Amino acid sequence: MSTSQDKPLKQIHLAAHFPGVNNTTVWSDPAAGSHIEFSSFAHFARTAERAKFDFLFLAEGLRLREQGGQIYDLDVVGRPDTFTVLTALAAVTEHLGLTGTINSTFNEPYEVARQFASLDHLSGGRAAWNVVTSWDAFTGENFRRGGFLPQEERYSRAKEFLTTANELFDSWHGDEIVADQETGTFLRDARAGAFVHQGRHFDIQGQFNVPRSPQGRPVVFQAGDSEEGREFAAADADAIFSRYATLKEGQAFYTDVKRRLARYGRTRDQLLILPAATFVLGDTDAEAEELSREVRRRQVSGATAIKHLEFVWNRDLSAYDPDGPLPDIDPDLGEHTVARGRAQVRMYRDPLATAREWRERAAANKWSIRDLVIETGNRQAFVGSPATVAETINDFVQADASDGFILVPHITPGGLDTFADSVVPLLQERGVFRTEYEGATLRDHLGLAHPDAEEVADRVAS
């Protein structure tokens, strides 16, 4: 595919997702390292910064997932606290944005706003917040309010949570601290940080104790693909993740979300669309394709294939041979799920239809259970030589299928190294990716405006 030269070339945004608690990660590879030791996070972040990436992204789960009543131990299990890791990374990087997934269902706005404002100060303006919700009472059992919020209300709470956090960020205008040592005057306004919020989900008042940070507010990410999620992003987010890997699907998502911005008084450049993307590189396209097949089989062992099939069948399938045919019994449509805490179970809203489709595909292609799971769920987004991958990434962005990509390597922590050393220089040669950072904050990297202190002050006063 060739890109049109009728319009200026878009600059590509690149970020790196530290591989986490999922079977994308091949933790059994001899090259794989710890997911807990700080050296792994530091190596990964330094590689991303060396490649001039916009930011590093950390996902987070609030409970260990279970299958059949036991901890699901075929993936990486556990992760240190997100804020702790990002704050430590702020000390070993200078430019890289630091994005954390923090839940709006089981936390409180004051607490989260204080943590993000602190991270933004300590990093010199590089903090970002991926606002997520929890949909299941299983996760909520770890918290005081376990299971209290109906699923259909989670975005209502999330929107008010973000609104409240922004009120806290904006309670400081940025000019209150005088710190005049001669007169002994520290604050120009003793009411700095004062706030009152009364709403359906939160009724709080007081004084926010973290002065306005370099970005004013953290950059806000949103990950929902539902109608509510797309509207939430169009109204309030600076960037939205996309799960669409093909050009046509990506363009449809891009067009749909961008067109929603006008109703909120926003322009197309005020919301970035950034799909997650896995990759496999080789010296040649053929070598990369062969390596890709090998990686996919390592990501989906026989045991993992059976567990993934159970997401749809919702029953114990441990007696089945992963190298044999699919079960001829139908999925259990009961309300319980054998895979507690897994978001994937929500993807299959009609398990009977999914089972029929998978049986047909498996029969037509002579696939075993393991073959089917590999083919339906574990294709890398970019496979090829560095030149091929660079061209494909650029084509997607120039064709408005995305504004860039969040790269997810399958090896931790060194899986990003080859991409940084081989693909990034080719994008730089094309003139579509930076050779140096040009600003100090993550908003600068992403081309996003900083909230204006005077406008904020006027709005709060009114």
UniProtKB/TrEMBL annotation:
Domain annotation Luciferase-like: ranges: 29-399
The record, for InterPro entries, names: Diverse_substr_monoxygenases (IPR051260), Luciferase-like_dom (IPR011251), Luciferase-like_sf (IPR036661), NTA_MOA (IPR016215)
Ordered alphabetically, the record's keywords are: Flavoprotein, FMN, Monooxygenase, Oxidoreductase
Q: Which residues form a coiled coil?
A: none
According to its UniProt record, what is one Pfam family this protein matches?
Bac_luciferase
Q: What is its EC number?
A: 1.14.-.-
**In its keyword annotation, does this UniProt entry include Flavoprotein?**
yes
| GO-annotated molecular function | monooxygenase activity
* The protein, known as: NtaA/DmoA family FMN-dependent monooxygenase
From what superkingdom does this record's organism come? Bacteria
Q: Does the keyword Flavoprotein apply?
A: yes
Membership in a protein family: Belongs to the NtaA/SnaA/DszA monooxygenase family.
